[in-house]
Amino acid sequence: MNAKALSTYMGHANIAVTMDRYGHLMLGAEDQAAALMDRYLAQQGASAEPNAHDAPRVALPRHQLV
Predict the structure, then answer these.
(1) Count of domains in the chain?
(2) N or C: which end of the chain has fewer CB within 10 A?
(3) Please, how many CA atoms are within 13 Å of residue 57, restricted to the half-sphere of its CB?
(4) What is the rounded CA–CA span in Å between residue 55 and residue 4?
């Protein structure tokens, strides 16, 4: 579920409250966000692959991503 929509539905004062409370339950959201960003960049004509000037992607354990 979209975190902002959940925040609104739950009546939280802001999205930080929602993420602090439920963020650990949103596994896979990072993969979905990366795929959406890659698709957007491809549509814009930009390369979704990092080049020599970009910082490499680093895979973090999921518990460190929230």
Answers:
(1) 1
(2) N
(3) 10
(4) 29
Q: How far is CA 52 from CA 8, 34, 41, 56, 60, in A?
A: 41, 19, 17, 9, 21
Neighbours of 12 (CB within 10 A): 16
Please give the residue range of the domain that contains residue 10. Answer: 3-64
Residue 26 contacts residue 36 (beta carbons within 8 Å): no
Q: Which residues contact 65 (CB under 8 A, 6 or more apart)?
A: 30
Average pLDDT over residues 8-26: 90
Q: How confident is the model at residue 60 (pLDDT cuts 50, 70, 90)?
A: low
